[in-house]
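## Example pair
The file below holds two records. Each record gives the amino-acid sequence first, followed by its structure token line.
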Amino acid sequence: MKLVKPQKLKSGDTIAIISPSAGLAYFVPHRLNQSKKAIKNLGFKVKEYPHTRTAKNWSSGTPKERVNDIHSAFLD
């Protein structure tokens, strides 16, 4: 199998924010907001996926919702 090495990120590229495990952004949203601001200050765009700020029994959504966020981020 050939190793595929992606290009380096450059200013204006988009960084996806997903939460495929614990829904901690629901409990400490200021940390996510600070992170988004820092990423933008570096010159990148930010796309937050639907279940990033969700908390359902300590996870960020149902398994299907979390998988959908991951798949959507990679497809975008």
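Second record, same layout:
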Amino acid sequence: MKKDKKKGHHEELKREVIKLAAELMYFGGVKEYLTAKRMAAKQLGINIFPSNTEIRDVVDQLAEFHEPN
């Protein structure tokens, strides 16, 4: 049970990094995934680095929301 709670917390933190990295790329003009991940993790004070695909998916969602066809 304790392990599941820890994993859930890690996943929550990872989602925060994904969200912030995607926002940095979409709104902040950051071009490189690695730069966005590092900036997001540093701002959040954690050391979690999601995949580029996870970030790209959220960037795509932001674009769909802010640039409807």
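Notes on the second record: The longest helix spans residues 2-26. Residues 34 and 52 are 8 Å apart (CA to CA).
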